[in-house]
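Cast an eye over my tokenised protein here and flag anything odd:

===
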Amino acid sequence: MKRRTLLASLAAIGASGLARPAMSAPPADLAKLARPLWDAWKTAFLKSDGRVVDMLQHESSHSEGQGYGMVLASFFDDASAFARMYEWTERHLAVRPDPLLAWRWLPGQANPVPDRNNASDGDLFYAWALARGAANFGNRSYLTRAQAIAQALAESCVIAMPGNDERSLLLPAIHGFRHDSHVTINPSYYMPLAMRELAAATGVSRLALAAQHGEALLSDLAAEGLVPDWVDISAEGMRPSDNLSANAGYEALRVPLFMIWSRQPQHSAVRRMAALYERTVKPGVAVPTIIEPFSGVVLESSPDLGYQALAGLAMCSGRNLLGAAMPPFSPDQPYYPATLQLFAVVAAHETLPECVPI
């Protein structure tokens, strides 16, 4: 059965079609007015036991998805959903000998967690959600758990950059990304706001320093073109990965979102992507989702609304206008773009209120 969509437009909370900026201030109580969006997201992607489901990935669940969902639950003041996601995650993904999470859970398997490697972005968002949840819901145990994860993440996944000991790198995971000649990183795993807020809440200052170094790294990458999905870094320099996606694709799409959310809308990584969107995004035309980073040639596009929302936010961040060109939210899209669409609304509300869709 087709899941219900939200009522027509988001006029009540600020969204309209594709782009009609309106000269009025965004609502201060967006979390309350936008609650129907969150309820629709939960109906589509959250099981009653607290598991966030990615249907396109064999109905699996990830530390990323659990953390993403909990960040949203904190914003929408949904203590019950937050607690259910936390309890499911602790039962099923907190299976490592350290405080970090296994990165994926597969349903219907004799061993649903065959790979116990972590994913640093999943750990980061999960710990960030716990820090925010501790403050929002008055639960000290959430902060205690966040502190343990933050410390383990800093100790296990923050390393010195090859050829430059004064800079640090955030490894994508403990295992699999350090090679004899180079280190492989994923630039979209940097979420400076999350790293700084988590460092402030837990006292793990190394994460705040890694955020600063990550912002510089993204600037260096954007000096050459769009930020790629995966990058190899050696003492000789940086280059798009030889073995993983070297395009600016579904992973790298998060970079402008996270930089805008981190209060850096003029960062070069944002402006590079915004220029690409300005050139390619038109009403009724699918949004680029895989781009050759140096030439800007679009290799793949998607009609999913979440990617349109990312484009709208990025373009709005460089304009002297009110109201981002975000389409009305619908849960009739995959988990990933649907979640990024809600993130775009939250990011605008928290850091660029003039870009809350009107």
In short: The longest strand covers residues 164-170. DSSP finds twelve helices and nine strands in the chain. Confidence is low (pLDDT under 50) at residues 1-26. The two ends are 31 Å apart (CA to CA).
